[in-house]
């Protein structure tokens, strides 16, 4: 791996951490993976500044790579993160199809774009041809989508202790994820709750009951497996090597993680 490829990894991690810090401020979250969040420890104002510093430092490191195409790829991550956060705060189409499409687009912007564009940038720096760069992008995109769907499943299945945050946190934030969207197909009484973002007393409890009662968690797991399978298929044209085997192993780890 070249020095500039390592820089891409560092930049991606700094953007990732900075976005987490900002997310916790927006979501009023006191915990992140079982530890007190930055905003809890330092206050919202300081947390925002720390997140800004992380992203600014990543941008400065990006400039040292000195490649306009890589700069454009990585800069797109930050643009998508902001757009995804705005999408999460709004829901313009309340049809079942519209909700699911909104979820996928928002998840790409907030989660998958980081992995997709980082993978593409590393492939570009390896001087791979365009088809390999696009395969790397699709690998990262689909792996990121699978990761988030699994995260949404764990929000219902895992304990608060395992998650490091309160269970059913997404519903309490007003977010309808695949388990809820699938459940609404069988339990139409969930639709008005989704529209009002679970804002009335009893909405969260009713939604939890309906999700756990049906097969929506299994359907969401199948969705995650489908995205993961698509990601793995992008590696078919890659030569066999230890790095490829590691990328293949990531798929299993994403699907089998418990926190």
Overview of the molecule:
- The protein has 259 residues and is mostly helical.
- The chain has 2 domains: 1-66, no CATH class; 92-256, Farnesyl Diphosphate Synthase (Orthogonal Bundle).
- The protein has 13 helices and 2 strands, in the order αββαααααααααααα.
- It has helices spanning 3-26, 38-42, 44-65, 68-88, 96-125, 130-157, 160-163, 169-172, 178-186, 190-195, 203-213, 216-233, 242-256; strands at residues 31-32, 35-36.
- Strand 1 (31-32) and strand 2 (35-36) form a beta hairpin.
- Helix 1 (3-26) packs antiparallel against helix 5, helix 9 (178-186) packs across helix 11 and helix 9 (178-186) packs across helix 12.
- The two termini are 30 Å apart.
Please render the helix and strand layout as text.
Blueprint: H1 3-26, E1 31-32, E2 35-36, H2 38-42, H3 44-65, H4 68-88, H5 96-125, H6 130-157, H7 160-163, H8 169-172, H9 178-186, H10 190-195, H11 203-213, H12 216-233, H13 242-256
Antiparallel strand pairs: 1-2
What are the key terms here?
259 residues, mainly alpha, Farnesyl Diphosphate Synthase, 2 domains, 13 helices, 2 strands, 2% strand, globular
Brief digest:
With 259 residues, the chain is mainly alpha-helical. It is built from 13 helices and two strands, in the order αββαααααααααααα. It has helices at residues 3-26, 38-42, 44-65, 68-88, 96-125, 130-157, 160-163, 169-172, 178-186, 190-195, 203-213, 216-233, 242-256, and strands at 31-32, 35-36.
